[in-house]
Amino acid sequence: MQHRHFLIHKPHGYLSQFIYEKKRHKKLLGELYDFPEGTMAIGRLDEDSEGLLLLTTDGMMSEIVRSKTVEKEYYAQVDGVITAEAIARLQTGVEIGFKGIRYTTKHCEAGILNELPDYIGEGRRIRDERHGPTSWLSITLTEGKFRQVRKMTAAVGFPTLRLVRVRVGTISLQNLKASAVREVEHFSLPGAL
Fold first, then answer.
1. How many CB atoms lie within 10 A of CB 36?
2. Which DSSP letter does residue 51 get?
3. What are phi and psi of 10, to 5 degrees?
4. CA-CA distance, 145 to 83, in Å (whole number)?
5. How far apart are the C-alpha atoms of 183 and 188, rounded to whole Å?
6. CB within 8 Å of 118: residues ≥ 6 apart
7. C-alpha to C-alpha distance for 135 and 156, rounded to whole angstroms
8. Is the C or the N end of the chain the one with fewer CB within 10 Å?
């Protein structure tokens, strides 16, 4: 069987899945594109997060992408003007809760973003200036605990207001607007065929 692979810029408000069996209506990936049967999302972005999501009909790709050798880069808009001290704490690891236990995150790359690329787009309105300033940072991880970036920024005193994944390995969100889907021949990732 010839597998098919897709890049998608998941917009805010969509689940990273094709089936939702609870009674409440949720927006699903199948509403954005006519994907072939057997397509699955590799990794997840929660309903409130946006950005790059890889989809494939090849289940083996999921293990490669989720491995600790593949970096995932996020841009996070946070409440307040993030400090150099907070960035340093993120880089060295912070303690977060995961499955009822305390967990210290691994070293990561983090930095303040002074300018956002156009492809990020405006997104949904978070709030207006009356509620105080916000700032953006870049954070690159090789792990992916449940809501990890949100928990990390909150742990250093700057809760995440908007979260956009911009890169998985060498695959970038660049030039892919919100809701856009692009089929690719293969994923150029370490260990991928």
1. 11
2. E
3. -70, 125
4. 24
5. 13
6. none
7. 14
8. N
Entry pTM: 0.91
Q: Is 46 a catalytic residue?
A: yes
Locate the DSSP E strands across the chain. Answer: 5-10, 40-42, 50-56, 72-79, 95-98, 101-104, 109-113, 134-141, 160-168, 171-172, 181-184
- Which residue out of 34, 46, 48, 79 is catalytically annotated? 46
pLDDT of residue 93: 95
Average pLDDT, the chain: 89
Residue 99 amino acid letter: K
**Per-residue CA distances from 83 to 69, 88, 121, 174 (Å):** 29, 9, 24, 27
Name the 3-class secondary structure at 107.
coil
pLDDT in tens, 145-160: 889 999 999 999 999 9
